[in-house]
Each structure stands twice: as structure tokens, then as C-alpha cells.
Amino acid sequence: MLRLNGIETRYGKIVALRNMSLEVREGEIVALLGMNGAGKSTTLKTISGLLRPKAGTIEFMGQPVDQLSPEEIVRRGIIHVPEGRKIFPGLTVKENLILGATSRKISMTQVKQELQEILDIFPELIPLLDQLGWSLSGGQQQMCAIGRGLMAKPKLLMLDEPSLGLAPLIVQNMFHTIQKINRNGTTVLLVEQNARQSLAIAHRGYVAEAGKIVASDEASNLLNGIHHAYLGAA
Ligand code: ATP
């Protein structure tokens, strides 16, 4: 479904990705793991068109997408939920969710129906629908951010550190929900520092270090500690 081949991405003179190659197959959850600064967020930003690679290719559904605008990449079905749960603080939860559907030409009736589907996945948001974004807890904001991403009906959902800063019980709930979203038919590329919990729900995993992949395997093999030197104590 998605294939990165030899991607190089820079911030000015700083080379953040060097020869980054990975693949996500339809139906999978793929975990992209690695320490701070390994290049995980840069990989997602390059896929979603926010950064333009200096070298290499990105293919999605058999088509090159590395020269497309971020808007066109969204229209092709790739949705990026960035780190730090970027929801609109001055809008209500309902407004934030509905904004997720603006890239698609659908009727208000359909929006309402799809909103209901999102609330089936995140029932915790139902009592919060009229509350403003800023007033939500970290976990609630993360649910709202992912829910907004789902309103775009992505083929591929890319999540950047969804567990960051959440309490352990909420983290566990978040990973279960990601698994549920995947079982409902959405392919997921999951960037995480939380190696154990993401590998527990992923099909396959990649480990990035200094802008390239240094290990990749079935999630269960990675989890069994074959590459524990790269995963550290996470
Ligand atoms: P983190 O979990 O800390 O976000 P990461 O694996 O996602 O880590 P990236 O954020 O992709 O790593 O960073 C990869 C490299 O690019 C690092 O060396 C980082 O310092 C550098 N970098 C990231 N963003 C910028 C920027 N806006 N300007 C300059 N250098 C940057």
C-alpha cells in the first residue's frame, strides 16, 4: 500500500532521514520505533507532504506521491495525526470532529452518520461534544484528534506518539482503540517510543536510528527481544 524507498529528508543542512525505506501493507498495523531524534516524526511529515524529500521515492496504492501537495495526499487517503494532539482549542469537540470531514464532499446527513460511527469508537467523547478543545484532558484531546482523523475516512492512518504524556491506564485504552480502528478496516502506521505496547498490537515493526531503519521484523519477533539492544528499556 505504502512504500518508501531510499528517502532522504533535510532541515536545511541537517540530514534527518538518510536512506529511509519501509513498507506498509493493506490491513496492517506497522509500528515505527526508535529513540528521540531517530527520524520517526520526520518520516511521517515526509509521507504527508509537509516536507519534501531530497532523494528517494514514496508510492501509495501504486502511485508516486512524493511530489504531491499535502492536500492532495489527504485526498488520496493518507491522514496524519501529529504529535501533541493538535486540536483547535477554541472549537467544541463536535466542531473539531466535523472539521475532519472537510476534505471530502459529503452531505450533512452523511457527516452526522459518520460522526455517530466515530462516537461508537470513542464513546467517552459523547458527553464532551459541546465542550471546548482546551478544556479536555490529554487523553480526551488525543481521542478527539484521532476521531477527527477518522472523519476523513483514511485508507492509511498515521499516528505520531498517541501515547505520549498519557496516564498508563489511558495508554492501554488508547492502544486497544487503535487495534479496534484497524480491525474496522483502516491500515495504521504507528510512530511510538512505547515499543512494548505498540508491538503488542502491531503486525510488523521497524526500528529507526539516525534517520534510517536498522531492524525490521514481525512484531512478535521484535517483541521477543531479538532486537532488544535497539529497543532499550522502553
Ligand atoms: P521525537 O520523538 O523526539 O520527535 P523523532 O524520531 O520523531 O524523535 P525527528 O523529530 O524526526 O525524530 O527528528 C530527526 C532529526 O531531525 C533529529 O536530529 C532532529 O534534531 C532533527 N529535526 C527535527 N525537526 C527539526 C527542525 N524543525 N529543524 C531542524 N532539525 C530538526
UniProtKB/TrEMBL annotation:
Name any Gene Ontology BP term: L-amino acid transport
Domain ABC transporter: residue ranges = 2-234
Instruction: Report which superkingdom the organism of origin falls in.
Output: Bacteria
Q: Which GO terms describe its molecular function?
A: ATP binding; ATP hydrolysis activity; branched-chain amino acid transmembrane transporter activity
Keywords associated with the record = Amino-acid transport, ATP-binding, Nucleotide-binding, Transport
Which InterPro entries does the UniProt entry name for this protein? AAA+_ATPase, ABC_transporter-like_ATP-bd, BCAA_Transport_ATP-bd_LivF, P-loop_NTPase
**May I ask which residue range the UniProt record assigns to the signal sequence?**
none
Please give the PANTHER family that the UniProt record associates with this protein.
HIGH-AFFINITY BRANCHED-CHAIN AMINO ACID TRANSPORT ATP-BINDING PROTEIN LIVF
Family, as annotated: Belongs to the ABC transporter superfamily.
Q: What is this protein called?
A: ATP-binding cassette domain-containing protein
